[in-house]
């Protein structure tokens, strides 16, 4: 077998660098030499617990990583439009293409998805990855692979903005200043929203948002009452849209108080508990539109454009880089510095 190096997770906090079989391209597929992969919160969950929530349980050793970018090195039979040497961002979820969700363009809801780094689906903490040619998207020459790897979390931000129907003139509140909150801010700016308030309870995150993300206001949501936030930033009316990215149950609850009558809320953050409280009377009385956000669909070309536009300082989002051999250290770093870091990236300089 031709081999390649990969970081394989064997159990809780047990990552080993191993020689595994190098993939080759079948019909309609491409092989990408991985150059950068962002570490996602879900990767860290799997690393810590070998599972994520109740739904996703690892059953065998697993290669994590689903935010890759790299260079195409091989194309399979029938591939057109993509050639060896192309620099690309890789979308991680291949779907069936046949069900009602796929056919209607909402393929993120497909029940037959092979999403990189979920149980049974190899991820990208490796030297090479094989994937359908329609899952790779060329990036501009001037874009670094690290910034290109942000296409995945930025896609979540784009989808959250789409579902909250953010548009120019809106007053938008983003709850949570982690990677997804920052990416939602970037997407909203690209959508023409200038009045963005970002709320978090960590001062350093608020500072990062002020310094690098062009948000208009930041607010420590642990220090001000919801009514005070609404009064101070919207003159008492409420925000047109709220995007919840923190996953804190209290933030879910707050979102209904923060939004105006007829406003829209999109929920991205995943709370630890399955059931959280909402003000049902307020949702009804205010005619609030509440939407869940699950991954994204058809967003990569736009994500790449937004990254290239530098609407925020995307380079600053990359806190720290590790080589593939250091994947375990990278995971420990991401786990132990959740609050002080934004994005940790595995790079493959070779
Ligand atoms: Zn992710
Ligand atoms: Zn489908």
Automatic annotation (TrEMBL):
SUPFAM superfamilies xref list:
GroES-like (SSF50129), NAD(P)-binding Rossmann-fold domains (SSF51735)
Which keywords are on file for this protein? Metal-binding, Oxidoreductase, Zinc
- Please give the cofactor(s) recorded in the UniProt entry for this protein: Zn(2+)
Tell me where in this chain the Enoyl reductase (ER) domain is found: 11-346
Record GO terms (molecular function) = oxidoreductase activity, acting on the CH-OH group of donors, NAD or NADP as acceptor; zinc ion binding
A Pfam family hit: ADH_N
Q: Give the UniProt family note.
A: Belongs to the zinc-containing alcohol dehydrogenase family.
- Spell out the protein name for this chain: NAD(P)-dependent alcohol dehydrogenase
The species this protein was found in: Wansuia hejianensis
| Record lineage | Bacteria, Bacillati, Bacillota, Clostridia, Lachnospirales
């Amino acid at each position: 077998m031709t081999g390649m190096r990969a970081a394989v997770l064997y159990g809780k906090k047990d990552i080993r660098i191993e020689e595994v079989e190098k993939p080759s391209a079948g019909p309609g597929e491409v092989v990408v030499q991985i150059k950068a992969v962002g570490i996602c919160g879900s990767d860290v969950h799997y690393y810590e617990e070998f599972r994520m929530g109740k739904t996703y349980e690892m059953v065998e050793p697993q290669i994590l990583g689903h935010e890759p970018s790299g260079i195409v090195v091989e194309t399979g039979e029938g591939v057109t439009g993509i050639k060896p040497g192309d620099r690309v961002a890789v979308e991680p979820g291949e779907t069936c293409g046949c069900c009602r969700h796929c056919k209607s363009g909402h393929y993120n809801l497909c029940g037959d998805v092979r999403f990189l780094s979920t149980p049974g689906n190899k991820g990208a903490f490796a030297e090479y990855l094989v994937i359908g040619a329609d899952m790779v998207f060329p990036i501009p020459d001037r874009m670094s692979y690290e910034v290109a790897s942000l296409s995945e979390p930025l896609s979540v931000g784009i989808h959250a903005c789409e579902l909250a129907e953010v548009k120019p003139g809106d007053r938008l509140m983003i709850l949570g200043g982690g990677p997804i909150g920052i990416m939602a801010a970037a997407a909203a700016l690209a959508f023409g929203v200038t009045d963005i308030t970002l709320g978090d309870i960590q001062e350093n995150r608020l500072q990062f948002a002020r310094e690098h993300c062009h948000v208009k206001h930041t607010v420590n949501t642990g220090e001000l009452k919801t009514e005070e936030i609404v009064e101070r930033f919207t003159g008492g009316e409420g925000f047109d849209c709220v995007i919840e990215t923190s996953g804190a149950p209290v933030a879910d609850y707050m979102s209904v108080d923060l939004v105006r009558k007829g406003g829209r809320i999109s929920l991205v953050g995943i709370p630890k508990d399955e059931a959280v409280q909402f003000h049902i009377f307020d949702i009804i009385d205010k005619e609030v539109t509440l939407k869940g956000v699950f991954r994204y669909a058809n967003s990569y070309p736009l994500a790449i454009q937004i990254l290239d536009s530098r609407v925020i300082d995307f380079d600053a989002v990359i806190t720290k880089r590790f080589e593939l051999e250091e994947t375990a250290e990278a995971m420990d770093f991401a786990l132990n510095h959740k609050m002080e870091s934004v994005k940790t990236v595995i790079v493959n300089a070779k």
